[in-house]
Every structure is written in structure tokens, then in C-alpha cells.
Design a protein that fits this description.
205 residues, mainly beta, 2 domains, five-stranded mixed sheet, 15 strands, elongated
């Protein structure tokens, strides 16, 4: 005897399959070449799973695909626009001291010299800056426009609510050179920022 299915109950119980979206990218430049459901790119070798909302915004051209890149090392999607950062860490991030950090190769390296009362900001050699890192350097492309500005807040030690001063550095100012901030004269302080790059460290001398 043929089994009769209650259609209304079937609809009520039905759970649509979750669609997984991927970004296909160039393994040398990190540039995203295609975005869509994973089943459409089963044969693609270089791809990462991305957030469905971001994927739909790219597909609908709300985010331009030529602004999308994959960080070759972390395999994470980054989105950049000329002069403006689309996706940035909006939380205040304390730049950790090298004495307490396990980060081997920081992207942004800050050095404070108490004797000279200066802060020196450097970009890693890997990203085209001046700070040398251990081991062999593999060049990485910076996806952000060179005029993108990074703001740093000098605060009381471990207390971002007590602000001493703010200074800004553009990416262009760190390519092939360092940026020196003078007259930093505080007994003890911390540096906070909203992250553009992933890893920041500071060394107090």
C-alpha cells in the first residue's frame, strides 16, 4: 500500500540545506577571481569558505570583486577599497609588548626608546617595510591603498580610557622607510589601535 505523506507536515518539518559559499583566488596575488556556492567550484584548487552574507554582497555587486583578496598565509578574505577600509577591526586592540608575545613575525613593529623619547613605527620587510624578521622573507602584497591611515592611541598603561595623545601613520609612510614620532615622554604607557593588519607588537627600550 502506498504511503500517503502529509504535505503540510512535510513543509513544516523541512529544513533547507545550508549553502556553503567559497571564494576562488589566484595563488600568487591572492586576488579573488570568483565567488559562489561550493558545488559550482568543486574542481577549483585554490578556494576558501566565506561568509554567506559577504558572498551575496559580492555576487550582487554591492562589494566589487576586484576589492577582494585572500591573505595567502592565513587563508582569510580581506576586502579593501581605495582610501577607505571596508573590513577593519572596530575593537580597540592593545599593541602587545614583545616581552609577553609569542608572535614571531609581526606586521607592524613599534619601538619606544626612552632615552630619545621616540616611537618608531615599522612595517615588516615581508610587506615591503624596514623591519627584518627571523628566517627567509617571503614577500606579501598589501591589499590596502597606500593612503589608508592607521590611528594609534597612546594611553595610560593598560587603560585606553585615559588618553595621552593620538598619532597617525599611512601605509605609504611605512613602505621602504620607518616613521618616527618624537617627544613621547611618559613614565609608563600602552598603545592601542584599530587593527588594519593582524599582528602588532611594541618593544620598550
Amino acid at each position: 500500500m502506498e504511503k500517503v505523506i502529509d504535505f503540510d507536515q512535510w513543509i513544516a518539518d523541512y529544513t533547507p540545506p545550508v549553502i556553503e559559499f567559497v571564494a576562488v583566488y589566484d595563488p600568487y596575488t591572492g586576488a579573488v577571481t570568483s565567488v559562489g556556492p561550493s558545488h559550482a567550484f568543486e574542481s577549483a584548487e585554490y578556494k576558501i569558505v566565506i561568509d554567506s552574507t559577504i558572498a551575496e554582497e559580492i555576487i550582487n555587486a554591492e562589494i566589487q570583486i576586484h576589492h577582494c583578496f585572500v591573505d595567502i598565509n592565513s587563508k582569510e578574505l580581506e576586502i579593501a577599497e581605495i582610501r577607505n577600509v571596508f573590513k577593519i577591526d572596530d575593537m580597540l586592540h592593545r599593541v602587545i609588548s614583545v616581552d609577553y608575545s609569542e608572535i614571531k613575525n609581526a606586521d607592524i613593529y613599534i619601538t619606544y626608546k626612552a632615552k630619545n623619547k621616540t616611537l618608531t613605527v615599522e612595517l615588516s620587510k615581508e610587506l615591503g617595510g624596514t623591519k627584518k624578521t627571523p628566517g627567509k622573507v617571503k614577500k606579501r602584497n598589501i591589499i590596502w591603498d597606500g593612503t589608508t591611515k592607521m590611528d594609534f592611541m597612546i594611553t595610560d598603561y593598560n587603560d585606553p580610557n585615559v588618553l595621552f595623545e593620538i598619532f597617525s601613520v599611512t601605509i605609504n609612510e611605512l613602505v621602504g622607510q620607518s616613521k618616527i614620532i618624537k617627544d613621547i615622554d611618559y613614565d609608563k604607557f600602552s598603545v592601542y589601535t584599530r587593527r588594519l593588519f593582524k599582528n602588532y607588537v611594541i618593544e620598550y627600550k
